[in-house]
Design goal:
This protein has about 1250 residues and is an alpha/beta fold. Helix content is about 45%, strand content about 10%. Pathway: Amino-acid biosynthesis; L-methionine biosynthesis via de novo pathway; L-methionine from L-homocysteine (MetH route): step 1/1.
Length: about 1250
């Protein structure tokens, strides 16, 4: 902005001080629900800005690609940004967010714009302020500017390297400094408040809060702070694993004006998480959800009216004080939200009890119902020689097991201390806490950061996202040093333990203990800003029974000091290092445990509510030998005995007697279940997936039974029924069920020879089952992981499963079904042509007179397709869409039950009629353009300014036996868990409250097999890539044999979106991203086929034959991941080397998952080009079958299934999109261009047709004839 505009801006904002704005804001929020604005990015996209628009005049010479850096528009297109702010203000927004979500040096480094950060933020705030002033001049309504701090593109709590969980790409101080620079600009630009938003990692938010305190002090102002987290999936946790309440506990020290949630979820999915925060928070609550959830093309379809209706429940239930919109919302959405909010009163801020509230990944609140908090002491090098040796040897995995054991044994907080002379305490504290953060079963509890060196404490505080406890600070260096440390602890958001230690030394008498704690309490509450409930006093536990008379009263002095502190210092807590008490009895664990139990019994009664103890070695007071207990009480309470015997001497005498009970060994493997009956042992093995003893237990059961069959129908099925019940109740997950099936199969395999012999002798086979199910992947499709999982689950529930495998023709399915007299047929498929094949199978079942149920499942199937396309063609029987394996048993049992079959089928039919009608209505309501108009609205690029890069290689290049270990670093694990029907994103799913344990077990098994695959080279990944001179002509891409572009090599045919677009968004086709022939630009297109290797099928079959379905499914799932990882790695090599249009790209494998790089690799058969037949051209160009071994089936599925193919397009403006539904005019045009009959094109494009083809419409009539 110019000097003149600076002066004008100053005149316009005169009289608006931060204090006055804060008062006005708080007054407004107490009177009504305030409205926050909507998405900035959505509105910017509608502007259709190109690279030159983002650069402006100022950054025209910048070497970096700048399109997409929305914050830069504050400097290059300020009027456009101001107008967006103004539109939201006039739509009803009370608070306007600055366009500074990514305006930190960390995020701007991607664009080489770090030097512009101050100006981006200052001008961003000024633009929002100017829009406020314009709106206020128009309607007189006061508005406020919220300076937006985004989460950055780094995470301080999670390693970006799956192989190095302790690594961090960014530190707390990196973030603190970056946020500080951003805040200076936002404050100077006139922000009324600060919004720390879209928090996926709470440690990042804590760094932002710390920076706020620093910059507020520097600037001499204090602005209200809004804090908004984001729940990343239906697990109900942030990406870094915290629950909503744990998140609130972690940031509460920032005294936020509002706390709440935004982004990630639509309003409907956000409601429960918002209610949790609303119930917990004693401040105002803000919510600004997305406009629903993105569709399969990443677009937001929710209308303003729908969004307003969904957020209305927030208002009705009194959950919010501030309401707005995030991704996909527009001024129209905010107008509807504002109108809805105006009808309701704001949420009343609750008064909450003054309780200590800590957090790890989960919240911990010290209520009256918790009489004593166990702080695990074994992760302390000064208290555990075993732990110290692990740390000195840098054996951190073993050291993590110690922490895990403490939590498993009941520690509600773990004390971490690294103070040892030969250890770099500060670095080790950082390393250990970073590793703990990667272990959800440990990180769920809060951490007590324990050190006598404050620099170590501070380093630890910079590593934990939860609310920690600091152990400890004291007044031994005087009040000034004490207050300085206390204020820092509070700024990091921790509670504090204060030692009874002052300038004169440690307090050892009752009077000194109470006096020092009282003095510290006054300083902390009146000068350091601590709430009393965040203060813990340690009045010093000293060793007793040492033989020194002065020490005899230490125990009772602590207990009495505890009583007086709790009475006179309200809210404060008491803790102590309990093991210090028995220091003189080292080596005699039995006596030490008894002393601790006795001491705690009396100290807890006096008010001690926390203690550093070995959570696995606490004796129960009542269970202690009476004689030993009495002797311990004599020394703890300093009681004189009637017989005149010295209590210490008596305890020493007893100690000798009890010494044999000391030196306990490490916890042995729990095999107590092996002592139970054989029936119970078999059930235990099935539920826990233990194969180790199943053969011997099955043999024992066979010898006890009259017949081998009775073992299956008895203990084995009893155990599997338990598995089924647990699975149905959500207490077991698919990977665990598949492990159970492995145990079952091995047991049955042992019994089979005996059963065959019995059958031979008697001529009978009487085994009963719940029903017979035939399953098959339809003709042309090779994918079967999901089908196999369903088969395992059904088999576990006593259904006989006949699995015909993959690529099964309709005739074989029906022939087998009739011969085997099956009760149900199940069809599976992954690729879209399989949908048409399923329609065909259903029609054949109708024609041949079948009336048994038909189940439909697979990645591309849906209830809508089943109801609209499959079900109407099979009237004699019922077609049922099965969403996942967990539903299969319920569906089959209902269909085969005499009691429930009728009502269940009636319900399904009624549901499908509604679904079909809603689909028809929805399609009628969607406006689609004629092809000519869609082409007129094509994506237009500035071809004159674009200089295509010539690939470093042309023609094709083959790669064989690519390094598996390298590819493993590129694996995206989220789809792996989805294969096993576990919903959630990796790594957050490992911390999920419900399925985290199962997810971790599955992941560990996957890692074990992954290592074996790599070490033994199970797969031999192969690839072929190629590049060709290319130009677009209309909707087609022509490939040429040479750079003279005289001879055509092939044509790639593309399809164009016909859906009516909002604003001026284009109707895209893939051809739009390739330079037109008449542009004179020499452009290029690439292609690829990669496979994990043809070895996958044989390996999976070996496991299946060994009755190990779990490993069979696992190897296929990992092969799929290798194929996708290979595609990702190859695309990276293409961008940087083989084509070389992005040679300086520096993405990590984790970054690549988000696909933020330049260029795309669209695959035939997927949304950007739904026509699978285009694979034929690709495979011919690359000679793919000969070079890689990958083959195309008659439905254009690739064999082996763990293969990926597609095209490479390098234009920087290219992006992934979905063609969606198309009309007859485009199908006829496309058929003419390809030289194919219209009916054949309609067959391959059936899933995206927005009309019923003539042949299909006539088919029922022909069948009737």
């Amino acid at each position: 902005m110019t000097e003149t505009s600076d002066k004008l801006f100053g005149a316009m904002t005169e009289g608006r001080s931060p204090a006055e704005a804060s008062r006005a804001l708080r007054k407004a929020v107490s009177e009504r629900i305030l409205v926050l604005d909507g998405a900035m990015g959505t509105e910017i996209q509608l502007l259709g800005l190109g690279e030159d628009d983002f650069r402006g005049h100022r950054f025209g010479a910048c070497e970096c690609h700048l399109q997409g850096n929305n914050d830069l528009l504050n400097l290059t297109q300020p009027q456009a940004i101001e107008d967006i702010h103004y539109a939201y203000a006039m739509a009803g927004a009370d608070i306007l967010e600055t366009n500074t979500f990514s305006s930190t040096t960390i995020a701007q480094a991607d664009y080489q714009m770090e030097d512009q950060v101050y100006e981006l933020n200052r001008d961003g705030a000024r633009l929002a302020r100017r829009a406020c002033i314009r709106a206020e001049e128009k309607d007189g309504k006061r508005r406020f500017v919220a300076g937006a701090l985004g989460p950055t593109n780094r995470t301080a709590s999670i390693s970006p390297d799956v192989n190095n969980p302790g690594y961090r790409a960014v530190t707390f101080d990196d973030l603190r400094i970056a946020y500080g620079e951003q805040l200076r600009g936002l404050i100077d630009g006139g922000s009324d408040l600060i919004l720390i938003e879209t928090i996926f990692d709470t440690l990042n938010a804590k760094a932002a809060i710390f920076a706020c305190e620093e910059i507020f002090a520097e600037k001499g102002v204090t602005l209200p702070i809004m804090i908004s987290g984001t729940i990343t999936d239906l697990s109900g946790r942030t990406l870094s694993g915290q629950t909503p309440t744990a998140f609130w506990h972690s940031v509460r020290h920032g005294r936020p004006f509002t706390i709440g949630l935004n982004c990630a979820l639509g309003a409907a999915a956000m409601r429960d998480h918002l209610a949790e925060i609303s119930a917990a928070a004693d401040t105002f609550v803000c919510a600004y959800p997305n406009a629903g959830l993105p569709n399969e093309f990443g677009e937001y379809d929710q209308s303003p009216e729908q969004m307003a209706k969904e957020v209305e429940i927030f208002c009705e239930e009194g959950l919010v004080n501030v309401l707005g919109g995030c991704c996909g919302s527009t001024p129209d959405h905010i107008k509807a939200v504002a109108e809805t909010a105006a009808r309701y009163k704001p949420r009343k801020v609750p008064t909450i009890a003054p309780l200590m509230r800590l957090s790890g990944l989960e919240p911990f609140t010290l209520t009256k119902e918790i009489p004593f908090v166990n702080v695990g002491e074994r992760t302390n090098v000064t208290g555990s020689a075993r732990f110290r040796k692990m740390i000195e040897a840098n054996d951190l995995p073993a050291a993590l097991d110690v922490a895990r054991s403490q939590v498993e044994n009941g520690a509600q907080i773990i004390d971490v201390n690294m103070d040892e002379g030969l250890i770099d305490s500060k670095q080790m504290m950082i390393d250990y806490l970073n590793l703990i953060a990667a272990e959800p079963d440990i990180a769920k509890v809060p951490v007590m950061i324990d050190s006598s060196k404050f620099e170590v404490i501070e380093a630890g505080l910079k590593c934990v996202q939860g609310k920690a406890l600091v152990n400890s600070i004291s007044m031994k260096e005087g009040e000034d040093a004490f207050l300085k440390q206390a204020r820092l602890v509070r700024s990091y958001g921790a509670a504090v333990v204060v030692m009874a230690f002052d300038e004169q030394g440690q307090a050892d008498t009752l009077e000194r203990k109470v006096s020092i704690c009282s003095r510290a309490y006054k300083l902390l509450t009146e000068e350091a800003g601590f709430a009393p409930e965040d203060i813990v006093f340690d009045p010093n536990v000293f060793a007793i029974a040492t033989g020194i008379e002065e020490h005899n009263g230490y125990g009772v002095a602590f207990i009495e000091a505890t009583r007086q502190i709790r009475q006179n210092l309200p809210g404060a807590h008491i803790s102590g290092g309990v093991s210090n008490l028995s220091f003189s009895f080292r080596g005699n664990e039995a006596v030490r445990e008894a002393m601790h139990a006795v001491f705690l019994y009396h100290a807890i009664q006096a008010g001690m509510d926390m203690g550093i103890v070995n959570a696995g070695q606490l004796a129960v007071y009542e269970s202690i030998d009476p004689e030993l207990r009495e002797a311990c009480e004599d020394v703890v309470l300093d009681r004189k005995r009637d017989d005149g015997v010295d209590p210490t001497e008596r305890l020493l005498e007893l100690a000798e007697r009890w010494r044999s009970a000391g030196g306990k060994e490490a916890k042995a493997k729990d095999l107590t279940w092996r002592e139970k009956s054989v029936q119970d042992r078999i059930a235990h093995a099935l539920v826990n997936g233990i194969t180790e003893y199943i053969v011997e237990d099955t043999e024992e059961a066979r010898l006890e039974a009259d017949r081998p069959l009775h073992v299956i129908e008895g203990p084995l099925m009893d155990g599997m029924n338990i598995v089924g019940d647990l699975f149905g109740a959500g207490k077991m997950f698919l990977p665990q069920v598949v492990k159970s099936a492995r145990v079952m199969k091995q047991a049955v395999a042992h019994l089979l020879p005996y059963m065959e012999e019995e059958k031979r002798l008697n001529g009978t086979d009487e085994r009963s089952n719940a029903g017979k199910v035939l399953m098959a992947t339809v003709k042309g499709d090779v994918h079967d992981i999901g089908k196999n999982i369903v088969g395992v689950v059904l088999a576990c529930n006593n259904y006989e499963v006949i699995d015909l495998g993959v690529m099964v023709p309709a005739a074989k399915i029906l022939e087998t079904a009739r011969r085997e007299k099956v009760d149900v047929i199940g069809l599976s498929g992954l690729i879209t042509p399989s949908l048409d094949e399923m329609v065909h199978v259903a029609a054949e079942m109708e024609r041949e007179g079948f009336d048994i149920p038909l189940l439909i499942g697979g990645a591309t199937t849906s209830k809508v397709h089943t109801a609209v396309k499959i079900d109407p063609g099979y009237n004699r029987g019922q077609t049922v869409y099965v969403t996942d394996a967990s539903r299969a048993v319920g569906v089959v049992s209902h269909l085969l039950s005499e009691e429930t079959r009728g009502s269940y089928i009636e319900g399904v039919k009624a549901d499908y009629q509604k679904v079909a009608e809603a689909h028809r209505k929805g399609e009628r309501d969607k406006k689609r353009l004629p092809l000519a108009k869609a082409r007129a609205n094509a994506q237009v690029s500035d071809w004159a300014a674009y200089e295509p890069v010539k690939p470093a290689i042309t023609g094709k290049q083959v790669f064989e036996d690519w390094d598996l270990e390298e590819l493993s670093r590129y694996i995206d694990w989220t789809p792996f868990f989805q294969t096993w029907e576990m919903k959630g994103r990796y790594p957050g799913i490992l911390e999920d409250e419900k399925q985290g344990e199962a997810a971790r077990s599955l992941f560990n098994d996957a890692q074990a097999m992954l290592k074996q695959i790599i070490a033994e080279k199970w797969f031999q990944p192969r690839a072929v890539i190629g590049f060709w001179p290319a130009n677009s002509v209309g909707d087609d891409i022509r490939l040429f044999t040479g750079d003279d572009r005289k001879e055509e090599l092939a044509t790639l045919y593309t399809l164009r979106q016909q859906l009516t677009k909002r604003g001026d968004r284009p109707n895209v086709a893939m051809a739009d991203f390739v330079a037109p022939l008449d542009s004179g630009k020499a452009d290029y297109v690439g292609g690829f086929v990669v496979t994990a290797g043809i070895e996958e099928e044989a390996i999976a079959n070996r496991f299946a034959k060994a009755n190990d379905d779990y490993s069979s499914i696992m190897v296929k799932a990992l092969a799929d991941r290798f194929a996708e990882a290979f595609a990702e790695r190859m695309h990276e090599k293409v961008r940087r080397e083989f084509w070389g249009y992005a040679p300086d790209e520096t993405f990590t494998p984790e970054d690549l998952i988000s696909e933020d790089y330049a260029g795309i690799r669209p695959a035939p058969g997927y949304p950007a080009q739904p026509d699978h037949t285009e694979k034929t051209t690709l495979f011919e160009l690359l000679d793919a079958e000969a070079t890689t071994g990958v083959k195309l089936t008659e439905s254009f599925a690739m064999w082996p299934g763990s293969s990926v193919s597609g095209f490479y397009i390098g234009h920087p403006d290219s992006y992934y999109f979905g063609v969606a539904k198309i009309e007859r005019d485009q199908v006829e045009d496309y058929a003419a261009r390809k030289g194919m009959p219209v009916a054949e094109v309609e067959r391959w494009l059936a899933p995206i047709l927005n009309y019923i083809p003539t042949a299909a419409a006539e088919a029922p009539a022909q069948a009737a004839e």
